[in-house]
Amino acid sequence: DMPQRYALIIAPADAADPREDFADTFTPIDVTAPALSVGELSTQRGDGVFESIGVVDGHANEVEAHVQRLAHSAELCDLPAPNLAQWRQAVAVAAAHAPAGEAVVKLILSRGVEHGPTPTAWATAAAATDFSTVRRDGVRVVTLDRGYDLGAGERAPWLLLGAKTLSYAVNMATLREARRRGADDALYVTRDGYVLEAPTASLILHRGGEFVTPAPSGGILHGTTQLSVYEYLESRGLTTGYATLTIEDVMTADAAWLVSSIRLAVAITAVDGTPLASDPALTAELNRFLLSPR
Ligand code: PLP
After folding, report:
1. Has keyword Coiled coil (predicted)?
2. How far does residue 110's CA lie from ligand 1's centre (Å)?
3. What is this model's ipTM?
């Protein structure tokens, strides 16, 4: 990871707080100094939610979709509803301090300090990893067992499968397993054989003139980048939809991508060692769109 370059602590305002200016709830901090209490539940238990927002030359992309998903994740975790106006302003302040070029603004909302009365919240801005090579060359994926069936998200909401929680140890372990198996990334597959998403990205397929992505029915995160890509494709008169997809659907697709806020669109070039068709011109076009101010 690149070093953090800017961070601010946010004193979370009540969702109903009608203020228009939240500047006095933001405290910039020294990123080289300790900032969190040892009782902090985000560090003890990963008990909190977060967002990573792509920033290009100081412009934060799809801010509304990200703050809305932060609120959705908070609701799934029974955290106090975030004040969206305050979070939009926090994004603006952090983005204004982001380095030029591609950067990332992270938002973190934690349950707070053990036995404490309020959540802890902060935002950071840092340079993004350079993903230009992988955007050009794509990724080889392996399919990995997600350990539950397609209905688990709706049947067991306490598993928080549709929330972007800070508990990403499993997602990071999945990426390490993928690399051990000689691949660059992983595709999660349910016990009953359906593909879901990658550990940090959504899946989009192009097949038979239509673009499809797994339906976000509680078991996966609804990707902001997937939503953006769909808006773009629809504006070009192309057909998009949600479906229940199998590994066979991925293998036989005309092209397949993993899409996410910072890495953007990368082609899947192989699944479990079998090469996949790709569409380099459309991949480049999608990334030109995703790098433009949105
Ligand atoms: N799915 C998971 C599990 C993720 O962690 C992410 C983002 O990190 C995504 C999908 C893609 O979401 P977005 O496009 O909003 O970055």
Report:
1. no
2. 19
3. 0.99
